[in-house]
Amino acid sequence: MTFITHDDYIAYHGTPIPQEDFDRFAARACEAVDAATGGQISLEAAQHGDALPGFPAFTVQQIKLAACAQAEYLYFEGEEAALSGSGDGGDYRIGEAAQVARGASGGSTGASGKPMLCAKALDALSPTGLLYRGVAVC
Asked: Beta strands 92-94 and 97-99: pairing type?
């Protein structure tokens, strides 16, 4: 499920992603954003039959901002490095010694333990409550 368009990304003013590559990056970015929210976005879509229904306008804006930031991150860092957590990010190896940078806390993590979402995407989702992992009190 992709919930951003190339026009949304152009309005975001990110690093230009060629139109022919955009759909792939947008799909992966939306998957990562949905995973970081515990599937709340796809659950709402399944219940309402639309990509971003049932959310307040501010939340929709922040979800799209997060997806655009993540698409830019995937494009800039390279899909494999960004998704596996093996990108630059301060990692280096000299002989037997290695320094592995740890990513920001929050969001879902890849196999390396690094966040799957970039910092800008996490920042965009933070005020929405979609990253909350606690139990709702009724």
From this structure: antiparallel
